[in-house]
Amino acid sequence: MILCITHSQDTYTIELVQQRLQQLGYPSFRFNSDEFGTRYRLRYRLTPEGPQYQLQHGKQTLNASDVSAVWYRKLWKLQVPPSLDPAYVPAFIKEYNTSLHIFLDALDVPWINPMHIDHGIGNNKLIQLSAAQAAGLHVPQTLISNHAEDAIKFYDANNGDVVVKLHGALSKTMDGAGDFFPTTRLRKEDVPMLESLAACPMILQEYIPKERELRVAYIDGEIFTGSLKAPESTDWRTNSTTIIQWEPYQLPPETAEKIDAMMRLLNLPFGAIDMIVQPDGKYVFLEVNPQGEWGMLEKYLGFPIAETIAEKLVNRITNE
CA–CA separation, 140 vs 286, rounded Å? Predict the structure, then answer.
């Protein structure tokens, strides 16, 4: 049994991966992490033979010992029963999160991606940029700071050509819908507002002129790349999805090799990578999101990303 960790609002991508797993002869169990405290029954026991971990969802039962691999797509915020007394909410969240990780920690099987690596890399842009640089990719000058003086010096050193962004996305949807802070070009009139960095550290990077934006889906050595003509806004997610025109893109072999080297340095089997193609043809790495969206590349470009994820999972089981 292959465990697929996602959330209740996830559609399309999860279904495609599960369909391919079924075709390969590997049944899967969809685990909606947001519903763990409301729709799952857990039963953990210490027996003379050792610990046993079991989840039940409707008529489906999953024993940790039956799990042969894990596709870790996303871990979502727990739903809280609306009838629960607010005074008990902190205990509900704490105990269910603890119980969830007790189960997940028991799964000593192949993961795409291993959760601790996924979280560690996703929450640390400096590690990403360092690995990209070590692999030979071009990266933008970068500052992470909570101090206005640092930011102003960085702004001046880059002649005012600077963008700001948060360390983590506030939106987790394929089209960027919902509340999120997009990558934004810093204007001169915004500089006095940098005093507010004390309330929210941010990432400042040199502005990279762009001809095209790339979203690269990397799966255990396989690469699928979609491109967009650079929009007027700094972040493509701020544009209406009706005007976004994804196009297939072929990376130069040497750039693909550097991406592969970077992902192996990070020990990440999967990642959605953002890059820029500059007007002079140079490729610049921006970031890798271990839980990044790729459904639009499969939907609009026909890339077999879901099939590849399923096949790579199965390969990891059979090659153990």
Answer: 7
- Give residue 285's region: left, alpha or beta (phi > 0; psi -120 to 50): beta
Which residue type, as a one-letter code, is found at position 78?
L
Which among 257, 264, 261, 255 is positioned nearest to 285, based on CA atoms?
Answer: 255
Q: Is the pLDDT of residue 12 over 60?
A: yes
CATH of 141-207, one of 3.40.1350, 3.30.450, 3.30.1490, 3.30.70: 3.30.1490
Residues 272 and 172: their CA atoms lie apart, in Å, by 13
Give the helix ranges, DSSP H, for the chain.
13-23, 36-39, 89-105, 115-122, 125-134, 148-157, 253-266, 295-301, 305-318
User: How do the residues of the chain divide into helix, strand and coil, expressed in percent and rounded to 5?
Assistant: 35, 25, 35
Query: What residue spans define the domains of the chain?
Result: 2-109, 116-138+209-302, 141-207
Sheet holding 50-57, edge to edge: 41-47, 50-57, 60-63
Region label for 258, one of left (φ > 0), alpha (ψ between -120 and 50) or beta (otherwise):
alpha
pLDDT above 90 coverage of the chain, percent? 72
The CATH number given to 2-109 is 3.40.50
Cis omega before residue 239 (within 30°)?
A: no
The hierarchical CATH code for the domain 116-138+209-302 is 3.30.470.20
45-85 pLDDT per residue, tens: 999 999 999 999 999 999 999 999 999 999 999 999 999 99
Q: What is the DSSP letter of 138?
A: B
Alpha carbons within 13 A on the beta-carbon side of 251? 27
Residue 11 is given by DSSP the state -
